[in-house]
Design a protein that fits this description.
CATH topology of the largest domain: Ribosomal Protein S5, domain 2
Number of helices: 8
Structural class: alpha+beta
Largest sheet: 6 strands, mixed
Radius of gyration: 25 Å
Strand content: 25-35%
Shape: globular
Order of helices and strands: HEEEEEHEHHEEEHEEEEEEHEEEHEEH
Strand order of the largest sheet: 6-1-5-16-19-20
Helix content: 25-40%
CATH class of the largest domain: Alpha Beta
Number of domains: 2
CATH architecture of the largest domain: 2-Layer Sandwich
Length: 363
């Protein structure tokens, strides 16, 4: 065997090893893929997703209003070159730098998941408020517990959807930011070992709940140091005092605010006679605000693909996402631009009467 053959014999395994290492090396990218869609007018585990307890009149008609989801690579997952290239070559998927999807690198994957749950709770509550206001009902904003941190002082004392009305007997403002500041100031000023009493509205009744704030502790080289300001371990959001309750039962693993528009339409449809969709299949997305404004969301191209695969005939696109749907693979599914609950409701009702009716478009 000559010298060149020996060099080749040695080099080939090394090159192969380097190629395998490059292929498996974690890359700082995240992928979006179409996720499942859910008919919010339907059932989950044999129970209606939209539930109205208390004997309030409901109307269960034909048709579908489908919320859409996107499958996102978790923050703590690492993709290799093969996985990134597979997603890049798939017309239904998208590849983004991880820092663009998860800009705050200090947050853990668990913190990201918790924030997604908080956003989902808030989107459901806001959707109920918007739908009931559309029916002519009056709702009052209130500071709300959206998530309780396990093992925190509030664990077992407070629950998600508790509406905080008073702190130490003093009523909180109806302005959510002001109320949040008032609550945080009261907790911060609590002396070590003392309780703060929160008056919460729970299932229509006011309940006084005592909680003892704690300061976060840090274990540094075996020495536990108490640092930071007092906390009780809750996430806060905007809730509402409603004339009657409505619940939305969705898989708790689904997070984020983007289903708010579809929740509000489905709740309104459930509380009014007749089928809003005329028996058709409508999908859509958009964050809903308390005034009915529809906000932009992420992953809309993948959500459009998921809706088309599940047979949707009409898709509601937030107006601020119009530039993001260029080149979307919607097939013969119509894309309709909406900016408020009212424009979305009108568009669906118009389409239900005539599938060829002229509707607002992103183009």
């Amino acid at each position: 065997m000559n010298q060149r053959a020996v060099a080749a014999f040695v080099a080939v395994p090394l090159v192969a090893a380097l190629a395998v290492a490059a292929l498996l090396k974690p890359l700082p990218y995240t992928t979006y893929a179409p996720g499942p869609t859910i008919d919010v007018l339907g059932q989950s585990d044999g129970k209606e997703i939209i539930q109205v307890p208390g004997g309030h009149k409901t109307y269960r008609d034909s048709g579908q209003l489908r919320m859409v989801t996107v499958s996102v690579t978790p923050k703590d997952s690492n993709l290799n070159l093969f996985e990134v290239m597979s997603a890049w070559l798939d017309r239904s998927d998208a590849v983004y730098p991880k820092e663009a999807v998860y800009p705050d690198q200090t947050k853990t994957a668990e913190q990201e998941r918790q924030e997604g749950q908080v956003e989902m709770v808030s989107s459901q509550d806001t959707a109920v408020a918007v739908a009931e206001q559309a029916l002519g009902e009056t709702v009052t904003p209130s500071l709300e517990v959206t998530l309780v941190d396990p093992g925190s002082p509030a664990d077992g004392a407070l629950s998600a959807r508790d509406l905080i009305r008073k702190v130490n007997g003093t009523p909180l403002s109806d302005d959510i930011q002001t109320a949040s500041d008032q609550l945080r100031a009261a907790i911060k000023s609590t002396a070590p070992g003392q309780q703060v009493t929160l008056t919460v509205l729970r299932e229509g009744k006011e309940v006084d709940v005592p909680v003892t704030p704690e300061r976060p502790s840090t274990d540094l080289f075996g020495a536990v140091t108490v640092t930071g300001t007092p906390q009780i371990g809750i996430f806060l959001g905007q809730g509402f005092i409603l004339p009657f309750p409505v619940t939305v039962t969705i898989d708790p693993r689904i997070g984020g605010p983007s289903a708010g528009l579809m929740f509000s339409l489905a709740i309104y449809d459930t509380l009014t006679p007749g089928s809003m969709t005329g028996g058709g299949r409508v999908a859509g997305t958009g964050e809903i605000a308390a005034d009915g404004t529809v906000g932009a969301i992420g992953g809309i191209q993948q959500k459009i693909v998921g809706a088309r695969h599940d047979g949707a005939q009409l898709f509601l696109v937030p107006a601020d996402n119009c530039t993001d749907v260029k080149g979307a693979h919607n097939g013969d599914m119509r894309l309709v631009k909406v900016d408020t609950f009212d424009t979305a409701k009108t568009a669906v009702e118009t389409w239900a009467k005539d599938h060829d009716a002229k509707l607002p478009s992103c183009s």
